[in-house]
Amino acid sequence: MLVAGSASPAEAGTGQLLVHLRSLLPGLAGALRQVANVILEDPAWASRATIVELAERSGTSPATVTRFCRTLGVAGYTELRVGIATEIGRADQAGWEVGIGADVLPTDPIDRVLRTLLAVDVQAMHETAAALDLSAVDAVADAVVAARRVDFYAAGGSAAVLEDQQLRMYRIGIATWTWADVHNGLTSAALLGPGDVAIALSHSGRTTETVEMLAEARRHGATTVAITNFSTSPIADVADHLLGTSVRETAFRAGAMSARHSQFLVLDLLYLAVAQRTHERSTEAFARTADAVAAHRTPYEPRARGGSARSADPQRGA
User: Which of 49, 178, 196, 225 has its CA 20 to 30 Å from the CA of residue 295?
Assistant: First the structure.
């Protein structure tokens, strides 16, 4: 069930077991998915339950739970329980005010909405950082630096996230384009070749247009990269490198909306890794572009003591 570029709990540390399980969930079916759902619904209970109790609550059998452990990449049920307990303990130690599965309720006052939002986003970024395959980030950064051109593919709201990344890369001298229209994206992908890089963003990993564009780029020999929350999603099948986020949905924010901060964390890391590798060129390009737009910034007028900046200007009316 594991894909290239993803780490098993044994490789990433048992403290990322629930993160890994959520990323695998769309690829699980039948009895295995039943076991996964029971664990994710109440991780604290699962960390204390016997194998028989977990099997009974999930409507399966101890043999199915054992098979589930192998699918998840852990040695056995004891390691599964330890991994769940470790992740819960890590969340408690981090001081998150709301636990796993926290959500915003319709009757919550605005101060609790703020605390919940902060806790959920911070937790997602911590989990994303802990589970991120840094060797894959290094490999992608090397490929981007050496590339003739870099294409970014996404649809809907994900395209806005990638457009920000594309503009930042372009500003430090990387030839980049963002494609949100599938026809234009497929046309561009067909013109890529070995040495070029194609990076696609899809929270679900199941957006047909995004998968098609990345697959077309791969068919022509480009190095392909997928940023997604689910390591067993279709987009992972057409990616040479997988950069994962770890985000859970809330009632008023679908997964793609909840994923923004974690996606920017991954993209920021990639941007800085590229900038490090091209430090002199990036520094010069950044300075030149900043100078080019400097004349379009309104001059700062310090506020006069006892009055506004406007009233301090004798050439302006009261």
Answer: 178
Kindly state the helix (H) or strand (E) to which residue 224 belongs, with its residue range: strand 223-228
Amino acid sitting at position 126? H
| End-to-end C-alpha distance for the chain, whole angstroms | 71
Choose the weakest-confidence range: 78-92, 96-110, 191-205, 263-277: 96-110
Q: Phi then psi for 152, rounded to 5 degrees?
A: -115, 130
**279, two tokens:** 């430090």
CATH annotation of 134-291? 3.40.50.10490
pLDDT tens, residue by residue, 244-298: 998 876 555 555 567 889 999 999 999 999 999 999 999 999 899 989 999 998 8
Residue 105 contacts residue 238 (beta carbons within 8 Å): no
Q: Tokens for 146, please give them.
A: 């050496």
Same fold across 9-95 and 134-291: no
Arithmetic mean of pLDDT over the chain: 85
What topology does CATH give the domain 9-95? Arc Repressor Mutant, subunit A (1.10.10)
Note whether 255 and 249 are within 8 A (CB): yes
Phi, psi of 203 (to 5 degrees): -55, -50
Show me where the domains of the chain are located: 9-95, 134-291
